């Protein structure tokens, strides 16, 4: 197989030590040097494929999971026999095989390996030494890592005085007994440090009780056994195997995006204080040259690897060599960043040689600089530091304290299992603590990203940080690891970082994510910073660049009580119980039939596990299928392997091995390919693999570029101007930017010069900073709402309420009085009746005066705003119009858009500084002009019925169509971490994106879930674990409502999935059955628990649109007819399209049953009428209900005794509420600016409607 096929646990096993020839030479040197230092050599290399004793090579059964070809070989000449003495001491045998071809993995450097396996050097000693273990990491030029575990063990050697060397028996009184050390190094692609150390410990026990003549064969057999061990996929299944006396457990990766973690993460906490750990993490994040030092070689790799895990999801991308022998110390002279490790003995030598090294002494727990005794690098931000130190103090790190209450265990494997459980628990807590640290440092980076243009506004991000943290961020933002982190955020990677970021996001932030407004510190946030001594807030230092995203601005941790901060274990990943799968006993000899029998037994055991697993535990089933697929691919059963991997569609797509499948498909012989393509599911899988391979080749190698925002250097036409403004983060909406372009180019050529853009950008940012520097007295804060922000402050002016500054928030105008600071409310925007400019006499002059008449006061407010009068007049009128339209339409986004327009007016006037500035600003008075237009008028019935509107396309530059809505009720007893118990609203947008809203607060619950790339047509809540979505790409995607993740697919349909229906269960013991249909007339009946096809049939019709189950019969709606179909697929009854609608090109669009009156209701996509039939007698004349001003029915739902019908009106999308008793239209609602695409009911209390692309909003309607 090719390189993409995963290997087993073993990559290679290398034996190193003193060669036979060198041992003979040493016999002549005895007495000259008591303990000579000798050069170690590679003596044996064992790597798959292994030779078979009966069938030549083991190419047929490939014990290393597809490693069936030699890559390069290392060949050692025959040495003259030199003997060592084993405990059983037998005849003379060579230590090394005479002339073997040694298969060497490509990325293993055999020249450097002896130095790494003997970093202290190799000596012939007079005394035996204890076995010693340490760990290695090898990195190739592409950054791919392999890992090594080294065991050093002593063997006795006898030298005869006449230079003859004998073993055990000849003239022992004249032999000198010395000891030499050998190393066995297991090399693996996976960092299974603890497991491989256990394997070597078991093997050394065997070596010490065996004869030397068996040495090579034993090493080879040991290597072959490890090559037979499959690596478990990410998830809740560990693999267990026996190497007596131990039972070895291979833990799986916690997540697809995480590496294997088979080490003790608490080791750094035992070696360093929390402050030192933070210093080390800071050095790594800033890509310093870091050197770990210790007298214990094992600590170097284990501690360094822990820190690599602590910075996840950031990944170290520079040289990583945690063990340097004394011959390799010149590596430290490298000019690049690196993480290396060496013996403490070299501390002085290294410190004197180079400046600016970070020297970390593991044994002493110190972090120093080579140029001074103190480390003078910036610390991590204070917020994150305080939180981490608080968490670290609460860690329980001592196993002995945990088991002091437990009795002594007599079974070694039981003792080891208990220790593993404790370590797993500790590791989980530490992972959460370190992930929380990284989230606290970098979570707000995402608020300064422009996803459409892949831009990071680093300057604005830095401005938003505390001044004391600037030095840290300046260094980190220029690193390679941060650049890769940005690339993953821009690719919207859903990893542990994203999940924790969502989990810790407050309800306030979720609510603010539902509005699009310029971001300033809210009153609630200002109160957090109030200084007790004078009651004024300090500068918050936050400059918000993106008006379209209000998800920034969380309360800093240090402003809360650290002692009360909640900590939830598993806050980035829901905890799941771990299961183990035990491998069969390894075959005794390396013969073909025994290995083949081992694989057959392994497949049988996996098949038993699959049969025994319950359908509800799909995650466990997926891991069994994955392992069986691996084994089948190894033994050459490629078609069976494809079947197993195909099963992942219905169990867990997250672990789908795309690279392995590509290799598997490419290696299919012609006959096997024909066999596979006879099965529709496998044929489709093969086609999918080909398409994905083509897409992968077309993708950029670096995962996409990341740009830093820069001011333009050339003139900008409309298109370039729109892109630049979006990149800057000032505003996203394309229409608003186009109006801004018109304002900046009034009276000149239609292009914006770079100087003008710079003036505008700088004025905008200066205005932001000035608004944040406003000192509001406590007495003022008490009058404002917690989410209000001060956006504009006038100069000091004379008013009818005294002298002071006029302040504008998103809700009101108030006067900040001078002298003794005070608060005088002017008006709320919704209370304004009129705004106008007049002039007041002052000496011989007339001063422009702004007059505001409100409904709550008889007297008119007047302010002598002088030169600011025209601007404030424009801004207040726009805010007033925005508030009126927002209230009429129950859509808060209109108010936020008006606020954005007002602030843009301010920036335009400020940067133009000319007579035409006010005229230019009028180009942005969108709502002031719009309020008098007829389409913006809201009829009384609509206003009374409409409760609220939501914009699900806030993070888009233009709206997306809302194609499907689904409401799911809340679940009692479900925690917030497990999806929450509140009801949810599921919203499918036109690009395959699914959003989730908390239906209790209508706040967006978390980021979107991408479900394919095509339009989504239908949704069905099957049960509490499954939500089905039918797509235009012919797939049915299955979302887990609790975790809000999509990792299952049903692929049996061959064309666009158009409808889903659920059959009512007759009793609690019956199986749940679901129906799905596609446009080609295909209907599939599903067993929901097993996700298996029960039946499949085809209905003869013109485009099957949707299905429903009524009275145990399946009703199908097509363009030309409605069909009642029996369970076996035969048509029972048929309702044809009425004669007067026969010319309709799209025919029927939707239908439903009203059970109480046994009526069948249907609508046409090209006619403004509803047709109603009697279900008991379809031959009776139907009832026609005319819908005035309707050009076509799109959807309909039943709510209580009403039918709500979503339509395309002549000018706008409408909803008609029809009385089912009188067959009359009760209400006609002006719902949206575009066609109503979808309707759903929320427990018959509310109806929710979604609109097509020109509107793209969700409306919430009250049901009477």
Automatic annotation (TrEMBL):
Residues 68-79 have a biased composition (Basic residues). InterPro entries: Beta-prop_LRRK2, cDENN_dom, dDENN_dom, DENN_C, DENN_Domain_GEFs, TPR_DENND3, Tripartite_DENN, WD40/YVTN_repeat-like_dom_sf. Residues 67-496 form the UDENN domain. Keywords: Cytoplasm, Guanine-nucleotide releasing factor, Phosphoprotein, Repeat, WD repeat. It is found in: Cytoplasm. It comes from the Eukaryota. PANTHER family: DENN DOMAIN-CONTAINING PROTEIN 3, DENN DOMAIN-CONTAINING PROTEIN 4. Forms oligomers. Interacts with 6 of the 7 known isoforms of 14-3-3 proteins. This is DENN domain-containing protein 3. It comes from Onychostoma macrolepis.
């Amino acid at each position: 197989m090719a390189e993409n096929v995963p290997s087993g646990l073993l990559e290679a096993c290398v034996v190193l030590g003193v060669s036979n020839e060198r041992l003979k030479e040493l016999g002549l040197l005895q007495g000259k040097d008591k303990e000579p230092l000798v050069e170690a050599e590679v003596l044996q290399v064992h790597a798959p494929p292994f030779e078979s004793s009966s069938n030549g090579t083991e190419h047929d059964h490939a014990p290393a999971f597809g490693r069936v070809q030699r890559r390069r070989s290392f060949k050692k000449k025959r040495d003259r026999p030199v003997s060592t003495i084993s405990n059983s001491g037998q005849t003379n045998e060579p230590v090394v095989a005479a002339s073997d071809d040694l298969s060497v993995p490509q990325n293993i450097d055999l020249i450097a390996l002896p130095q790494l396996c003997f970093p202290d050097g190799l000596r012939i000693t007079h005394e035996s030494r204890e076995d010693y273990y340490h760990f290695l990491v090898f990195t190739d030029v592409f950054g791919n890592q392999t890992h090594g575990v080294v065991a050093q063990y002593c063997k006795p050697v006898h030298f005869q005085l006449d230079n003859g060397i004998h073993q055990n028996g000849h003239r022992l009184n004249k032999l000198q007994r010395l000891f030499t050390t050998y190393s066995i190094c297991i090399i693996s692609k996976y960092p299974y440090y603890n497991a491989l150390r256990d394997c070597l410990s078991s093997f050394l026990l065997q070596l010490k009780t065996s004869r030397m003549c068996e040495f090579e064969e034993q090493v080879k057999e040991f290597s072959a056994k490890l090559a037979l061990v499959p690596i478990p996929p990410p998830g809740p299944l560990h693999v267990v195997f026996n190497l007596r006396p131990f039972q070895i457990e291979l833990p799986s990766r916690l997540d697809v995006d995480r590496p294997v973690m088979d080490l003790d993460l608490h080791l750094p906490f035992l070696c360093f204080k929390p402050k030192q750990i933070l210093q080390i993490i800071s050095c790594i994040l800033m890509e310093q040259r870091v050197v770990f030092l210790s007298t214990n070689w094992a600590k170097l790799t284990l501690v360094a690897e822990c820190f690599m895990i602590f910075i996840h999801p950031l990944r170290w991308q520079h040289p990583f060599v945690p063990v340097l022998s004394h011959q390799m110390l010149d590596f430290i002279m490298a000019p690049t960043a690196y993480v290396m490790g060496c013996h403490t003995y070299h501390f002085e030598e290294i410190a004197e040689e180079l400046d600016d090294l970070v020297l970390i002494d593991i044994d002493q727990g110190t972090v120093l600089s080579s140029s001074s005794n103190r480390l003078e690098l910036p610390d991590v931000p204070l917020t994150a530091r305080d939180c981490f130190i608080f968490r670290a103090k609460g860690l329980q790190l001592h196993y002995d304290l945990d088991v002091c209450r437990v009795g002594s265990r007599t079974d070694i494997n039981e003792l080891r299992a208990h220790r593993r459980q404790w370590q797993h628990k500790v590791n989980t807590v530490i992972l959460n603590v370190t992930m929380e640290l990284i989230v606290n440092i970098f979570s707000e980076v995402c608020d300064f990203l422009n996803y459409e243009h892949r831009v990071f506004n680093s300057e604005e991000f830095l401005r938003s940080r505390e001044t004391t943290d600037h030095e840290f961020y300046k260094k980190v933002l220029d690193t390679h690891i941060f650049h890769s982190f940005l690339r993953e955020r821009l690719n919207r990677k859903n990893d542990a970082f994203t999940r924790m970021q969502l989990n810790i996001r407050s309800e306030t932030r979720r609510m603010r994510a539902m509005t699009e407004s310029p971001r300033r510190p809210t009153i609630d946030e200002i109160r957090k910073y109030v200084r007790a001594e004078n009651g004024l807030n300090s500068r918050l230092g936050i400059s918000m660049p993106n008006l379209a995203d209000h998800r920034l601005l969380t309360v800093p941790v240090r402003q809360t009580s650290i002692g009360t901060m909640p900590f939830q274990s598993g806050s980035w990943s829901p905890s799941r119980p771990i299961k183990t799968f035990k491998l069969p006993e390894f075959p005794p000899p390396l013969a073909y039939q025994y290995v083949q029998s081992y694989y057959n037994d392994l497949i049988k055991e996996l098949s038993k596990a699959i049969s025994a697993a319950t359908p509800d535990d799909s995650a466990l089933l997926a891991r069994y299928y994955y392992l069986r697929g691996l084994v089948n691919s190894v033994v050459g059963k490629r078609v069976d392997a494809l079947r197993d991997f195909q099963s992942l569609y219905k169990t867990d797509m997250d672990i789908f091995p795309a690279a392995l499948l590509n290799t598997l498909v490419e290696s299919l012989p012609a006959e096997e390919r024909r066999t596979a393509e006879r099965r529709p599911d496998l044929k489709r899988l093969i086609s999918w693999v080909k398409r994905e391979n083509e897409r992968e080749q077309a993708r950029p190698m670096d995962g996409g570029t990341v740009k830093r925002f820069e001011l333009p250097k050339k003139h900008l036409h409309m298109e370039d101007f729109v892109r630049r403004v979006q990149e800057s983060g000032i505003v996203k909406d394309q229409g608003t930017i186009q109006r801004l372009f018109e304002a900046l180019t009034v009276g000149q050529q239609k292009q914006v010069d770079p100087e003008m853009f710079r003036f505008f950008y700088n004025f905008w940012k200066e205005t932001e900073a000035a608004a944040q520097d406003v000192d509001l007295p406590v007495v003022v804060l008490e009058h404002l709402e917690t989410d209000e922000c001060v956006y504009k402050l006038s100069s000091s002016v004379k008013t009818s309420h005294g002298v002071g500054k006029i302040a504008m928030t998103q809700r009101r105008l108030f006067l900040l009085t001078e002298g003794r600071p005070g608060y005088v409310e002017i008006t709320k925007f919704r209370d304004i009746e009129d705004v106008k400019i007049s002039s007041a006499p002052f000496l011989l002059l007339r001063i422009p005066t702004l007059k505001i008449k409100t409904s709550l006061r008889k007297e008119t407010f007047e302010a002598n705003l002088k030169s600011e009068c025209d601007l404030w007049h424009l801004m207040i009128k726009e805010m007033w119009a925005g508030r009126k339209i927002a209230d009429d339409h129950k859509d808060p986004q209109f108010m936020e858009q008006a606020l954005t327009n007002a602030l843009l007016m301010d920036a335009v006037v400020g940067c133009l500084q000319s007579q035409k500035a006010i005229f230019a600003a009028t180009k942005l008075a969108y709502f002031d002009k719009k309020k008098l237009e007829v389409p913006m008028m809201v009829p009384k019935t609509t206003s009374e019925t409409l409760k609220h509107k939501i914009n699900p396309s806030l993070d888009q530059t233009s709206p997306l169509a809302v194609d499907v809505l689904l409401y799911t009720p809340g679940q009692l007893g479900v925690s917030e971490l497990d999806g929450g118990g509140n009801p949810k609203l599921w919203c499918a947008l036109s690009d395959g994106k699914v959003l989730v809203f908390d239906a209790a607060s209508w706040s967006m619950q978390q980021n979107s879930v991408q479900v394919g790339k095509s339009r989504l047509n239908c949704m069905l809540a099957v049960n509490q674990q499954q939500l089905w979505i039918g797509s235009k790409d012919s797939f049915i995607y299955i979302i887990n409502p609790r975790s809000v993740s999509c990792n299952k697919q049903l692929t049996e349909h061959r064309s666009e999935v158009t409808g889903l229906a659920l059959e009512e269960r007759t009793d609690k013991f019956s199986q749940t059955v679901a129906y799905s249909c596609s446009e080609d007339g295909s209907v599939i009946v599903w067993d929901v628990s097993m996700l298996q096809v029960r039946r499949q049939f085809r209905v003869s019709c013109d485009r099957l649109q949707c299905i429903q189950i009524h009275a145990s019969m399946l009703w199908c709606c097509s363009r030309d007819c409605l069909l009642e179909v029996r369970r076996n697929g035969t048509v029972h009854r048929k309702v044809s399209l009425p004669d007067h609608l026969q010319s309709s090109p799209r025919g029927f669009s939707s239908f439903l049953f009203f059970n109480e009156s046994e009526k069948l209701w249907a609508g046409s996509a090209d006619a403004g009428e509803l047709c109603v039939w009697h279900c008991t007698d379809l031959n009776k004349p139907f009832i026609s209900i005319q819908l005035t001003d309707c050009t076509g029915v799109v959807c309909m739902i039943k709510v209580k005794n009403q039918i709500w019908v979503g339509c395309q009106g002549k000018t706008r999308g409408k909803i008609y509420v029809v009385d089912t008793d009188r067959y009359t239209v009760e209400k006609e609602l002006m719902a949206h600016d575009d066609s109503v695409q979808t309707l759903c009911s929320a427990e018959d209390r509310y109806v929710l409607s979604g609109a097509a692309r020109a509107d793209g909003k969700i409306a919430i309607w009250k049901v009477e």
